Amino acid sequence: MNVTIFGTGYVGLVTGACLADGGHDVVCVDVDEAKVAMLERGEVPIFEPGLNEVVSRNVRAGRLAFTTDAARGVAHGLFQFIAVGTPPARTVPPTSATSTKSPARSATRWMGTGSSSPNRPSPSARPTASGP
Ligand SMILES: NC(=O)c1ccc[n+]([C@@H]2O[C@H](COP(=O)([O-])OP(=O)(O)OC[C@H]3O[C@@H](n4cnc5c(N)ncnc54)[C@H](O)[C@@H]3O)[C@@H](O)[C@H]2O)c1
Question: Residues with Cβ < 8 Å from 114, sequence gap 6 or more?
Fold first, then answer.
């Protein structure tokens, strides 16, 4: 399944790498160009035991890619995870969604612009919530 993760920090990178290791096709989007460049060179910017190997293995297998291109990320994933940092409580209330709104805005901006992804159903084919 095609999956997109916004934010390649502790949560996003580990989640993306593990999903890729489980056979999913993952694109990780981050606004930090230096971090994305590092990851593309095979350098992992955080320490998690074994993460280097999992990232390298899945990049080599073509199941894990990194980009700063939000449009590419939105076009890729049937599922879109937002794992960006949240602001410290000193500056804004901890419940603020300011940070998560940014990738959410990117997602809604690029959705519906068409996708070449074979795994992504057209809007009419997507499942809808059904209730009682
Ligand atoms: N790390 C933990 O143990 C942990 C535990 C529970 C909850 N969380 C929550 O999970 C979220 C992520 O935490 P983390 O530790 O991975 O943070 P992090 O700071 O390590 O990583 C966040 C990443 O998001 C990127 N980013 C910021 N804005 C972006 C945008 N608009 N689009 C794409 N990428 C963007 C940053 O460049 C950074 O690489 C936070 O909300 C945090 O509170 C983290």
Answer: 75
